[in-house]
Amino acid sequence: MIDNKKILITGASGFVGSCLLREIINRFAKANTFIFLRKNSKTWRIKDLLDKTKVLEVDLLDKNRVKTALSKIKPDIIFHLAAYGAYPAQNSLEDAIKANILGMTNLLTSLEKIDFRLFVNTGSSSEYGYKSKPMKETDFLEPASFYAATKASATMIGYTFGVLNRLPIVTLRLFSVYGPYEEPGRFIPTAVISALEGRDINVVRGPKRDFIYVKDVVDAYLSCLELKDFDHRIFNICSGSQTSIEKAAKTIVKLTNSSSKINVGTYEKRPWDTNYWVGDNTLAKKILKWEPRYDFEKGLYESIKWFSKNTRFYERE
Q1: Do residues 137 and 56 both lie within one domain?
Q2: Which residues, other chains included, contact 78 with Cβ-Cβ below 8 Å and sequence gap of 6+?
Q3: Which parts of the chain have pLDDT scores under 70?
Q4: pTM of this prediction?
Q5: Does 167 lie in the same domain as 36?
Q6: How far apart are the two ends of the chain, measured CA to CA in Å?
Q7: pLDDT at residue 269, as a whole number
């Protein structure tokens, strides 16, 4: 399936990308992995993996460098996870266009003469915008942020490029991924570390999310390797159920047996927060033969075990 194949991962120093790289290295001893890293990339997630993969200093905005690197590697499989805008501090429209649209375009056009087997782009549930029923891949896109708009553009570029050129390009639209190596400051790691230390957990009232454990997400990427045709090119990777932020905090307190107090309503809703957010994963189940192995409580339990052993990554400054 993946042994002896050349695999390129962009965004390998990020949350999901690092978990995907780790799984491939650990599970497929004969796989040849390559990663693109920018000069100042933070590598705390993958420090122990850097001597087990081939690292190329490549910025996706440098088309010549991208093209040169790809012509040398000639990858069989490309997992594209590099992105900008997933975190509140990343709010520049110009940077979102550069990273999410131009970066994607530079990758695709540099692959035109390479006979690759599979290109998996990483999309986002935010592309859908606000809906009142479970989100389906065929829904009209109504992005409500620059990040969402540029990710939707990248998805459509990948889709069209694949159809016009008959190339094996798919997009996985990820919902709210959580688990080991998640970014410090995000809700799940913040709540877990607070619970482990017995500190108050402050949450916003109302918003719900479709949480999906990172190991299930990694499985979804690897499930794409089994695709034989590309009649369907966009897949929701989600649990198919939604959980409120408040309930998630209560579950964390229960699983950690913590004395932490949960303060509901201490944060104002952000512009993209909504009381309804859930995906329909029917297509991924049918075509990718993928479905989540972890329900929310089981995924949280595994996450808590990892966070309790790795608090050094989440120490407050």
Answers
A1: yes
A2: 7, 8, 9, 10, 107, 111, 116, 118, 119, 120
A3: 1, 267-273, 316-317
A4: 0.96
A5: yes
A6: 44
A7: 67
